[in-house]
Design a protein that fits this description.
The chain is α+β, with helices and mostly antiparallel strands. It has one helix and two strands.
Length: about 60
């Protein structure tokens, strides 16, 4: 279990994405999760590994 406080965002990613990125640098994460996921993979995906990212936003 993990503490979750609505309205929250769940962000999961594989080891093909660098852990150095900061989700707070993506203010559109909640508003446009598809765009944020694409941008994160483009900027932080490792060229030598496949990358997966899942962003789940609570519906209002």
């Amino acid at each position: 279990e993990y503490p979750y406080k609505p309205p929250g965002v769940v962000l999961l990613y594989s080891d093909g994405v660098s852990t150095l990125f900061d989700p707070s640098e993506y203010p559109h994460l909640r508003r446009d999760p598809q765009r944020a996921a694409e941008q994160i993979i483009e900027e932080w995906g490792k060229e030598t590994d496949d990358a997966t990212i899942l962003i789940a936003v609570e519906a209002r």
